[in-house]
Design a protein that fits this description.
Elements (H helix, E strand, L loop, with lengths): L1 H32 L1 E8 L2 H4 L2 H5 L8 E8 L2 H9 L5 E5 H9 L4 E9 L2 E5 L9 E3 L7 H11 L10 E3 L5 H9 L5 E5 L2 H8 L4 E5 H9 L5 E8 H6 L1 H20 L1 H10 L5 H7 L5 E5 H18 L16
Parallel strand pairs: 1-2, 1-3, 6-7, 6-8
Antiparallel strand pairs: 3-10, 4-10, 4-11, 5-8, 5-9
Helix pairs in contact: 7-8, 11-12, 12-13
Length: about 325
């Protein structure tokens, strides 16, 4: 009887030990197969679309973990991409072309946001003849797009408008408009919504997107895109596809749940929830794979190139730019 008991105990111990060993091996293999992704987004609407990914703590399934990092300016993201410290990044569309044309080995994989620029003014009668403040500087997306469209719609950018680039921050410019210390400005979301909410004297006098549609026939222009390091894509093609699906789900979530998304947007230090939530419906967030959006992207690049070749890096991106 004692002998049988010892044999039974030995078998139990052996099975238990094998179970622990198998679990350890499984976890070891699981860790080895895990794909860790460094995602860079910028503070502002460019980062809104990633809210659900951050809300899910970066776990997008398929043993893939996404670490979302928020940067204050495009310059910081460019440095991280150039150094290979970032695998995937959300960028202004023209900046993606500039980087590619400078030799940064990236692929454009999706459009994640369309145009959201407006000229706002508290002087509704004479805004054309007044000073229009433009954030970001002459080479930034707002000025490139607005200047191109102004020139193609019968206005002279030099004689009909006095553009002031001295205030580079949209946030700072918004506060000046709210306090009536500035009269007119070209603003992106969410700052347009914020100004209209806080200063009833300020109105939208020009919807840049409508002008773009009249000019080109395209309903909007791709303002924000997702790019991936080509090396990362080559080594992890399945992970890239999983990230794209996660991004599409994230945008759907943000649009359907602006208040909940805004809380996450604040938690990851993109923008205060009180500003983000009311602006989300106006931010033109939309997911399109590059297959769906390529014609729109190429049209946008062609218009920018014809207006100012430097705005896309001196030449149109070749076919190797697109995934």
């Amino acid at each position: 009887m004692m002998k049988k008991t010892l044999i039974t105990l030995s078998l139990i111990v052996l099975v238990f030990a094998n179970s622990i060993f198998a679990q350890a091996e499984f976890e070891k293999t699981n860790q080895a197969n895990k794909v860790n992704v460094e995602l860079a987004v910028m503070a502002g609407p460019t980062g809104f679309s990633s809210a659900k990914i951050a809300r899910d703590k970066g776990d997008i399934g398929s043993n893939i973990m996404v670490n979302t990092r928020v940067y204050a300016s495009p310059t910081q993201v460019v440095a991280k991409l150039t150094n290979g410290e970032v695998d995937v990044a959300a960028l202004p569309t023209n900046l993606a072309a500039i980087l590619y044309n400078k030799g940064v080995d990236i692929k454009l994989v999706a459009v994640i946001g369309n145009g959201m620029l407006s000229v706002v003014s508290s002087d509704l009668n004479s805004w054309i003849d007044t000073t229009i403040n433009v954030p970001g500087g002459p080479s930034a997306t707002p000025n490139q797009v607005a200047s191109m469209l102004i020139g193609q719609n019968g206005y002279d950018i030099d004689s009909d408008f006095d553009l002031d680039f001295s205030i580079t921050s949209s946030a700072q410019l918004s506060q000046l408009l709210i306090a009536n210390r500035a009269t007119s400005a070209l603003l992106p979301e969410p700052f347009t919504t914020m100004v209209l909410t806080k200063n009833p004297d300020v109105k939208i006098v020009l919807d840049v997107q409508k002008v773009y549609e009249r000019t080109t026939g395209f309903s909007n222009y791709p303002m924000t895109v997702l790019v991936v390091q080509n090396k990362f894509n080559t080594e992890n093609p399945a992970a890239v596809q999983a990230i794209l699906k996660a991004y599409e789900r994230s945008i759907d979530f943000v649009l359907a749940n602006p208040k909940e998304a805004a809380q996450t947007i604040e938690e990851i230090q993109i923008m205060p929830a009180a500003i983000a939530a009311p602006a989300i419906p106006n931010c033109n967030l939309e997911y399109k794979s590059i297959d769906q959006a390529k014609a729109e992207v190429e049209n946008y690049y062609t218009l920018l190139f014809n207006f100012n070749p430097k705005s896309v890096g001196g030449k149109l991106p070749d076919a190797g730019f697109y995934l």
